[in-house]
Each structure stands twice: as C-alpha cells, then as structure tokens.
Amino acid sequence: MNFPTPYYQYDLNLLRETLNAIKKASDYEGFQVHYAIKANANPRILQPILKAGLGIDAVSGGEIAVALEQGFKPEKIVFAGVGKTDAEIQMALEQEIGCMNVESEAELRVIIEWAHRLGKRARVALRVNPNIDAHTHKYITTGLNENKFGISLGMLPRVIDLCRETPEVELEGLHFHIGSQITETEPFEMLCDTVNRLQDEYEERGITFKSINVGGGLGIDYADPQANPIPDFQSYFDTFKQRLKLRPGQQVHFELGRSVVAQCGSLITRVLYVKEGENKKFVIVDAGFNDLIRPALYQAHHKIINLSSQAQETEVYDVVGPICESSDVFGEEERLPLTQRGDLLALLSAGAYGEVMASRYNCRELAPSYFEE
Ligand code: LLP
C-alpha cells in the first residue's frame, strides 16, 4: 500500500478471528462480554464487535453516543467512570442503558436525584475497590486502595443500604476492575476469591446480586505479537468459570478492551532520516507520540518491523519521532535490518489505545485509518 504516512492499518480478519475465539471461550451459562470502547472507537472496528454480539462498556456520554449510533442496544451498554457529569447521568437514564457502575456514595446521591426528577428507575452496580495488586504499570493499576477508583470495602455496606432503601434504585450487582495489561492469572484468581468472600458475607445478610462484573484487563503479547496474535481467552474465562462461586441464575459480565483489538492494528510510518549520532544511530520516523502515546506515557514497547528492507545485515538504532520532546521515542537499541530513508516501518499491537489516544499536538494532522478485509 502506498498511502501517505503515518496511518493506522487494521486487519479485520484477525479482529473477526479474535471475536470468534472470545465467543467460543466464553460460552458458559451467564457469561456476558462487553467491549471496553475506550480501547478503540473506530466505527469500522465497532461493526464486527456489534455483529459478534458483544455489549459495550462506556466511560463517557460521548462513548455512549458512539455506541448507540453504531447500533448497540441501550440495554447492552454499561456506563462506568469516577466523574460522571450531570448531563451524562441524565443521558444514561433517558436512554435507559443497561447499568451505571457507581463509584462513590456522592455519585449515587446525584443519580438518585436525577432518577427522581426524570421519573426513572436507575439500574446500578457498585464498583468495589478490592485492594488487589494487578502487577502491571502503575498508571494502569486501578484496584488498589491508593487509586481513585471504586468504593472501598469499608464503605460498601453503607452504599448497599442506601441502594436498598431507595425506590429509584435497582441494585443490579457489584463491579470490579483491577487494572489493565494483566498477564498473570493470579490477580484474577484473587479477584474471584474477593468476590466469593463478599457474596458469602452479603448472603448472610439476605442480600444477593443479579450480576457480578469482573471488569477487563486481560493482557496481550507485545513482545511477540506475530507468534501470539490471539490472547489465551480460554484460560482467562476458565479461571472465572472454575473459581467464581456463582449463585443460580447469576450473570458474570466482562469488559475486555485491549485483548479484543490490540493485535489487529499497526501504526505504519515512514523513515525520514537515518541520523548518525555520537554513539548511536537514530531512525527518525514521521509518526510521533501524538499518533501513539503509549511508549511515552507508560514506557510501553511496541514491536517494530521494517516492511521495506530485505537486507540480511542488521544494525542497532534508536527509533524516534519528529516531536520536539525527548520522550518521543518508540524504541531504544532496536535491532533492525539495515534501514534507510523512505523505508516503511510498522509499530505492531497498536489497535488498542492507539488511534483513540492520538492528539493534534504540534498542530499535526490525525493519522487516518485503513482496513484490510
Ligand atoms: N473496564 C474498566 C472499568 C476500565 O477502566 C478499563 C480500562 C477496561 C474495562 C478495559 O481494560 P482492558 O481490557 O483494555 O485492559 N491507555 C492504557 C490502558 C488504560 C485502561 C483504562 N481502563 C494503555 O494504553 O495501556
């Protein structure tokens, strides 16, 4: 392909295969998968996800609007977020979306006010902060006491009581999300244990929940995406199947983002210059952190391949963008085939939190997207 660079390129076949794998692996009674639309809200990406029957996990009124526009049913949308505005709460109630995941008592009180004013019943789940370490980057860990997310275990009984004594509120269940890019099973097992403990505790008080939402977070293989293009969904869902003690008829909701879309997208960029430094060689490309911010923001690494060079000989380069900031680096000491001006490079695994997090910093244009069917 010879499009102007940089651009996002998506492999919709891989996306469909990934969705099939999710469907197959989650085919257990009561399991329902929502796609965390924050990972990628491109309409062409959303269509196969809609067709596969997934619901949506949204974190803003804007995301709810995009999901509705793309044809997702309101009842299959859940709405999370620590800072829902009044307008967003009003919209969620008016559109009668499936459930709002409530993050504090203060927020619940505002939801009750709005439900009362609009004459609606608010379906809510309470987001619990289970204080579990997800062993991932600190910016994407969300389930520790020090994080801003969720209702602490200590406050939970009070908020549950408030739900139960308020006619405008229908308490659907409990919601958890402990972090993102989780590559070990243990944090998910600990989450199951916490859920089991809480369910036992509340059952003794005569309280049961219709649904348990365990959030998202399943990680992907950034180091070797070509070898592992589809995450191990079977082990992931089996962990919950085996370890969660569900009550009869109870539903389990999942909110997967990255694992659904990361591997189907690449950022394609052209080499502008190969620059000899004092002790280093730099490959300067035409994509910058405004196109893909994950390396600059989370010290993330996306595998880089040279799509143009057939050279047997390799060289070690720092691959950097054009933005006037030292953090605009995609890779340090990358071993690549001999690279020259004009070569096309691909930054792999960029389908999640790539295009959606792009900005127009330095008055740069937003990178367009292209799709392989
Ligand atoms: N549910 C909730 C409540 C969330 O906050 C998130 C992600 C998800 C589900 C989806 O998580 P996933 O399955 O994608 O791990 N921009 C960062 C990731 C931020 C994740 C925020 N929350 C990155 O590029 O690594």
Write the layout of secondary structure elements.
Elements: E1 7-11, H1 12-25, E2 31-36, H2 43-51, E3 55-58, H3 61-69, E4 77-79, H4 86-95, E5 99-102, H5 105-118, E6 122-129, E7 151-152, H6 156-164, E8 169-175, H7 186-204, E9 211-213, H8 233-243, E10 251-256, H9 258-261, E11 265-276, E12 281-285, H10 294-298, E13 304-306, E14 314-320, E15 329-337, E16 344-347, E17 369-372
Parallel strand pairs: 1-17, 2-3, 2-10, 3-4, 4-5, 5-6, 6-7, 6-8, 8-9, 9-10, 12-14
Antiparallel strand pairs: 1-11, 11-12, 11-16, 13-16, 14-15
Helix pairs in contact: 1-8, 4-5, 7-8
The structure holds ligand LLP.
Ligand LLP is lined by residues 36, 39, 57, 80, 140, 142, 177, 180-181, 215-218, 255-259, 294, 298, 353.
Please describe the structure with a list of short key phrases separated by commas or semicolons:
alpha/beta, eight-stranded mixed sheet, 17 strands, binds ligand LLP, about 30% helix, elongated, about 375 residues
